Fold Probable peptidoglycan glycosyltransferase FtsW.
Amino acid sequence: MNQLLNKTRGDKVIWTLVVILALMSLLVVYSSTGSLAYKMYKGNTEVYLFKQVAFISIGIMLIYFFHMVNYTIYSKVSQVLFWLVIPLLLYTLFFGVKLNEGSRWIRLPIINLTFQTSDLAKLALFMYISRLLSKKQDTIKDFRKGFVPVIVPVAVTCALIAPANLSTALLVGATSMLLLFIGRVSGKHLVLTGLVAMIPVVMLVLAAVYQHSNGNGIKSKSENRSRLTARVSTWVNRVETFMYGGAGEDNDDNYQVNQAKIAIAKGGLMGLGPGNSEQRNFLPHPYSDFIYAIIIEEYGIVGGAVVMFVYLIFLFRSIQLFRKCPYAFGAFLALALSFTLVIQAMANMAVNVNLFPVTGVTLPLVSMGGSSFLFTCIAIGIILSVSRYVEKNANDGEEEPVNVEAANG
């Protein structure tokens, strides 16, 4: 064990934050799945706890393995991985496992496990555009030579993710725009892209307004509707629920939001205490999408603020890493992966406190384990790989500020 710890490198603060979130995950997942485990496994309430311990153990191993890999290798890997992800997303869209009228997963043969392809797509995309940004700094202001080669992969990835998972597509798009802005892409090109991207969002809002004013929402669960039509109906209903409060308790999204509000109200300032959640028995998905509401119910607003603060420290340390990394690829890669994790966390929290329409995004490293949990661990491992290189440079006395003009990778 000591030998393993001696080989562990990278930002110690980020390692500490990972441990804090993992411990919080164990506590809250165990609490939020107690009733479900009792019903599903005839009184054995520890089943999901043991599963989460297994996921965390595998996740820590993934972080350790990927942090030991020289981060420049990810630049080469991205060239292959990104182009493999595109047909994978297409396959998922048409032949993936269908759940809630959307295809987000594919089932792996032999082991019979499912994983969400958008998680792999995010990782591949951010590695790929980090490489492109580092390579094209000399021509990045040029529309044809600099902007188009960078924005096309983002647009294609978001377009393939959106039909089944609009919230993830929006988060990927927002993270990409932030990264392009930091990568010195022309402001007028970004503004134009933002205006184009806002068109479908505005159309959704207008559709929700029209649906509410006419009282003729497409809320039926007809089996004859196409997947895309069903998903559009779901998006419109969610926006309508967020804007107007939905159609009472019969509306699934309205029910979830109301139960989350009750959980937060019961938590108050200091919470009901670990394991004392009452709304876990009523709140759908208290161990994933709405786990933040359970955190506030059990640990109060103070506990919720601590969790938010942990993610903000994580972002701050990643920004410091960006400033210290001497090569553009590593700097962009660390920043992109940290942005996507923190933005996802903030989106999950916003949904739980009703500041954002209901989505399917989880709370990174806290929600119950799945493919999203493991890909989050891989992303953190890559960030720590960059940190390990910066740390080595600092120890060798070669540290210098990031040079975004340099082409690396």
